[in-house]
Amino acid sequence: MDYLLTAPCNFGLEKTLAFEVKRAGGQDIVTRDGRIDFKGDDKVIAKANITCSTAERIGIVLARFRAVTLDEVVENCRRIPIEVFAGREDQLHVLQGHSLNSALSSVHAIQTRIRVGLIGRMQEKYKIGRLPETGTELRIDFLMLKNELTITLDTTGSSLHKRGYRAFSNAAPIKETLAAGIVDIAHIRDTDTVVDPFCGSGTILIEAAMKAAGVAPGLNRKFSAMYWKCMERRVWNEAFEEARAAVKKDCGFEAYGYDIDPEAVKLTQENAKKAGVEKYIKIQTRDIKDFHYPVSGAKIVTNPPYAERMGTSEEVREIYRTMGRVLLPRGDSSLYIITSIEDFEELFGEKANKNRKLYNGMIQCRLYSYYG
Ligand SMILES: C[S@@+](CC[C@H](N)C(=O)[O-])C[C@H]1O[C@@H](n2cnc3c(N)ncnc32)[C@H](O)[C@@H]1O
Which residue from 162, 165, 169, 170 has its CB within 8 A of the most atoms of ligand 1, so it is best to mutate? Predict the structure, then answer.
């Protein structure tokens, strides 16, 4: 059976995610701001969860309808065949959604009525007055936009950026999904050498190594829909098997990570080991002022400190001037630098070939690309 599916992502990474969804078998892909809608069956749900590196989660769109009264919300929710997914014992957890430009503005009231409608449907279908709600938890999200309510059932569980390798991080880690998106924009291949002179907990290097070595981001974690009564475990086992078979035993990829903080260096080592890519990554404590290219033709992919999150503004600006001095005599190396500092190019000393807007959490940043 084909579902309408939806996958939110970081603003600016929609194209990358659309490509990943297509590779996972998604059909009729529609790119929206900050998400991708597509169609797919159980197999696509499993593959998208396991392999999409830039999606935050994968949801099944249960219903989309117009509603301007709370009664309409309840009535429409009673028509959703929730019993297909939820067993008699299962719990429904309707999360706090959003309401924008709509007659119904109370998120709490909408949330409560969705639950009333869905629970009413289950009571009717399972012919039971009081549901035990002792089983698997199903997470329901909603968005009321211009009087149209979209109700989504989450298939993922804890967000997809949680790959399982970063139990600990330093002060300002980049989200794994954003790092994966930047790695994709930098066209990292399995013959490349990637260098991150501000590696922190190693996220960029690890995402790059995973991509180069064919390690699917969800290979070592679990997903909610695996435990649903309507999902065949075989479908998930096959998707995991396929992902395991795609891991390269060895490849020519190399990565070098540096950071001024010895603790960050230790963290990167630990995280790379957990991700199973430590053999590709060499790490050293090093101040940016002592940077030199380990090889020619490397790709520098980095997330230097921004004033918002670490350091004072003047310290950070001096780091950017130093970066210009040590990184710019770059031969055939390419650079991909994400920062929120607005006059970055001035401080750095050269205009980028391209820059694109990306959000690091709530911070508006730009990714500056300098082609080798
Ligand atoms: C924004 S964080 C990088 C986070 C990293 N992308 C991650 O996901 O964990 C910036 C890093 O730059 C390091 N740093 C600050 N000043 C430095 C310098 N002068 N030379 C090298 N590294 C420095 C900090 O220790 C910090 O780990």
Answer: 170
